Amino acid sequence: MKDLLVSPTAEKLYETVKDLPVIDYHCHLSPRQIRENATFSDIGEFWLGGDHYKWRVMRMMGIAEKFITGTASNREKFKAYASIVPYLIGNPLYDWTHRELRDIFGITEPLSAQNADEVFDRASAALKDLSVWKLLDKFKVEFIATTDDPIDSLEYHGVVNDTRVTPTFRPDKLQTFSQEYIDELGKASGVEIATLGDLKRALTVRLDYFVSKGCKFSDHGFAAFPTRYPDEEEAQKLFLRRAFLTEEEREALWGRVLLFLTEEYAKRGITMQIHFGVLRNVNPEKFALLGPDSGFDVIGEAPKTQDVLRYFALTPDEKRPKTVLYCLNDSALPALACLTGAYANVVMGAAWWFNDNKAGIERNLEIISQYSLLATNLGMLTDSRSFSSYCRFDFFRRIICSFTAAKVDAGECSFAQAKAVLSAVCYGNAKALIG
Description:
Low-confidence stretches: none
Number of helices: 18
CATH superfamily of the largest domain: Metal-dependent hydrolases
Number of strands: 11
CATH architecture of the largest domain: Alpha-Beta Barrel
Mean pLDDT: 97
Strand order of the largest sheet: 5-6-7-10-11
CATH topology of the largest domain: TIM Barrel
Helix content: 40-55%
Oligomer: single chain
Order of helices and strands: HEHHHHHHHEEEEHHEHHEEHEHEHEHHH
Shape: globular
């Protein structure tokens, strides 16, 4: 038994999925770096340039910000991270760190302060022969959906080397209804936006442009679902005085726009992803200094089931796109997984963000199996800005193989049935969505 495979059955199941291609249907990789086949000067840049997972644990261990996002050299930052790795046992970063060192650089020694310089030199030397395209080839990455704003130009998307790189339509910035953003959207779409109808036309123009670039997914991120959805007449009035809305009114206006986008996605065959249950940028001082996506987001309250149901009840089944739900507060998973049986085309997503660890993945798989259907799940994604994160697909495949093997060994299903479900979850279901 080895490396998360807990039984001979798990090892046999793993052999059936370990070499499947990767479909990364939600990530934050740079399409420009992919198009330009970027290289990296050293492992410090490669690992620590934008990885807020690592930044968070470094802060927890008392590392000065100079060695996290500050002016220290890449070697100094790497050594600072290496010094805390022995203290990360139980945290997924301990596993991911050593998995990436082994699978990408062939380094099997545990990382620590004592061997930090040696590992830095060995890994950095190996990076001279690696590039983004070589990494994508190594991990058999067939498809990547990056995360893009409706106003983005999308000039870097397309088939790059052997990987299909497509944009994801993520209109989160629209939720504030700021005039600055609406002006930018108008410029990008060529629509002068004065009314709610104009806004909708601008959004459809940009949606069609995204589709022309291969878009298969949309994505929305918010703390909680709207609690009210005004009719068109009220929504138009709210939009006209958007600079003076209360938080409740702004949320209501967003609810109406969200319903509009939901139906537009369905018309275009776009799968809708919804990420919720997160509170962002909770440290005002650090947000002012470092900006978003710097490690200061936390788990929010579990959604109220009635709020989620209200949203789905307002969209007829025939006008609902394939919808994937991710909740950061996984205490809500049983209720959400149960919900997937009440509305067409709704499935639970992967264990998200802080739940993307062995226990969190196992919990997600068990709850989906019990309250929904494991066989319809879309499997793993990176949700990452780091090209080294493709090691997590193997991490997930080993965990789900051990999870499923336990069912086989307990006589709950046959090996052939488990193999078919694993093939669907690890590749087939996502492949069907992208065509």
